[in-house]
Amino acid sequence: xxxxxxxxxxxxxxxxxxxxxxxxxxxxxxxxxxxxxxxxxxxxxxxxxxxxxxxxxxxxxxxxxxxxxxxxxxxxxxxxxxxxxxxxxxxxxxxxxxxxxxxxxxxxxxxxxxxxxxxxxxxxxxxxxxxxxxxxxxxxxxxxxxxxxxxxxxxxxxxxxxxxxxxxxxxxxxxxxxxxxxxxxxxxxxxxxxxxxxxxxxxxxxxxxxxxxxxxxxxxxxxxxxxxxxxxxxxxxxxxxxxxxxxxxxxxxxxxxxxxxxxxxxxxxxxxxxxxxxxxxxxxxxxxxxxxxxxxxxxxxxxxxxxxxxxxxxxxxxxxxxxxxxxxxxxxxxxxxxxxxxxxxxxxxxxxxxxxxxxxxxxxxxxxxxxxxxxxxxxxxxxxxxxxxxxxxxxxxxxxxxxxxxxxxxxxxxxxxxxxxxxxxxxxxxxxxxxxxxxxxxxxxxxxxxxxxxxxxxxxxxxxxxxxxxxxxxxxxxxxxxxxxxxxxx
Length: 490
Description:
Blueprint: H1 35-39, H2 56-74, E1 79-80, E2 83-84, E3 86-89, E4 94-97, E5 100-102, H3 107-128, H4 131-135, H5 138-154, H6 157-165, H7 170-195, H8 201-210, H9 215-235, H10 237-243, H11 246-249, E6 260-263, H12 265-268, H13 279-284, H14 295-298, H15 319-330, E7 338-341, H16 343-347, H17 357-379, E8 383-389, E9 396-397, E10 402-413, E11 419-426, E12 432-434, E13 438-441, E14 446-456, E15 463-473, E16 480-489
Antiparallel strand pairs: 1-2, 3-4, 4-5, 6-7, 8-10, 9-10, 10-14, 11-13, 11-15, 12-14, 15-16
């Protein structure tokens, strides 16, 4: 029986043929994307030189970024009762936060705050996608600062691209040197700003500028300065594309009602250039509203084309929205061809967030964490007490038929004010405290206070009895701590 020939265009295959058919070679066309095409950059090095853009969302982003930066540098200089309002004093193991002193044992409160902030971020993401990345992320804020400096020195995006291509000359060396010098100065100030949350700010800046800072303080300042210089000056969008974990998992929090920066393809396609006010020809040629000006790509900090659909690289900064609306205004088209829209918005479907499981779940998580924070704050004591028994002897018998037990009380004043405390021993049995019942502690001070508890041998049963030490604030009796321990007798 002759062999059947199998070709890609054969309508049928003779299944009765037992012989193995000849292999078929399928040629799939492959398109090689250069780094320039992938990033949207026109420079040989693949650097993204995005254009400056003005508009409502850019004004909002600039205002939010500026507020973040001002708070970052200004908060360490705020003082309350003569002490820096926010200071994480590692050497003293204290965290001062606007009049509240937190100690290592109070750091569960910080954990609750961080968890609540995370759920709050997830809750906002359900509504507006990655608006945190576009409007409040420090990486975005510092990147735009560095690009602003670069633009002032080297010119617009097109001029910066041309400067990248140009051969080295005196002018290019001068511009690059000035830019990197200002970048380095901004990085050094950022390093000082970060470390000022751990070392008193007024002392830190003076010591760094005069060269009197210690080796470790100087090292940490320069470490964070170098990190800032590399992240905001060189890596920029690479931090968002490859290093930030949030960009990788944020899409799982989206649903059909999440508003993200979106291109309305049904309205915009087919895209194509045209002259202004060419409405008649536009209908005849079946062109959409997109004039293919490519401005949405040129203003994007991460170099993507939003017209290709939802992409994890998009930081929702709204630059492409402002650029597109500016073009739509020139052509007298409706705005928001690119805008903050949800999938249901594009379909014209009405919806309610109250029916969204993510809305209810993240909202409930935020409320629960806020309740936990409130309960933790309410139960937090301003006094710390730790009772340690004398380990050398369980008890001592005196000549007058009494039993003594010795203890070491570790008492700490967790406030920022000098306090007076009253000591007491509580029990149903007749115990007496041999020590001064009033003790004065300075702000943040901890003392080891030895005390002796005495009882008549005939008035208490033998063996181990439970007693309770209490420490009470003299002026605020509601502030009290207590701890149980054992009293031993023959």
